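I hope you will forgive my troubling you with a question about protein structure. I set the record out below, with my sincere thanks for your time.
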Amino acid sequence: MLKTCIVCGKNFSGLTDAKYCSAECSSQRRRAQYREQSRRYYATHLEKAHGKCHRYYVDHGRDARKRECTHREANVVRSHNRRVKLGGIPMTVGTILELKSEFLGFCPYCWDEIGRGHVDHIVPVSKGGTNEWSNLAWVCQKCNQQKWNRSLEEFRTYQENLAGGT
């Protein structure tokens, strides 16, 4: 017996109670139902869903929005401070904001414009690096992920090998 998938409209033969032609269509439908259920919940429980944050934004308006930009920086600080070795200097949001302004939006490794930047430890934390100012750089995501736990010299060699095709 041929049936029509309720998601994509494709005809398929299946069990008597089958509604979807594939697991992908079934997942797509479940995600759509979940999104709709979430929208309805937030629309009817706005105050509860937003809690303190919503009340804070309502009360403080524009002042609260100015502080939004530091939320990502605060997460980066927590992550780096967790990983830094004993005796290291804790990183602050101010450190990240200073790094951003020092490098003027360009990656010091590839000189591309930085969209979403990352804090890079020139000497990796895994090799004894710390959060000292002289060991930090604001770099693009691509370079930070390629550098991984390499030292700066190892990374330069890696970049040259990539450019040379070896």
The chain has a mean pLDDT of 80. The longest strand covers residues 117-121. The helical segments are 23-44, 46-60, 62-67, 70-83, 93-102, 141-147, 152-164.
